[in-house]
Specification:
The chain is an all-alpha fold. Helix content is 62%, strand content 0%. The chain is built from 4 helices and no strands.
Length: 69
Amino acid sequence: MEINVYMGVRLKEIREALALSQTEFAQIAGNAGVPGATRQSQAKYEKGLATPSAAYLAAIAAAGADVLY
């Protein structure tokens, strides 16, 4: 499985486990100052069409998401 697709599946699982919408999940990163953190970018991450930045992953990790999962 391509790494972006695999990562996207994991991000969706994490988001759903936290009971957050794509918009709410993206806002976590946006509130932390990550540029381009939108619902659209979240959807692309989950579909494997884009790779999240290290800043994005750090922001969601700081909010309690297990990015090492």
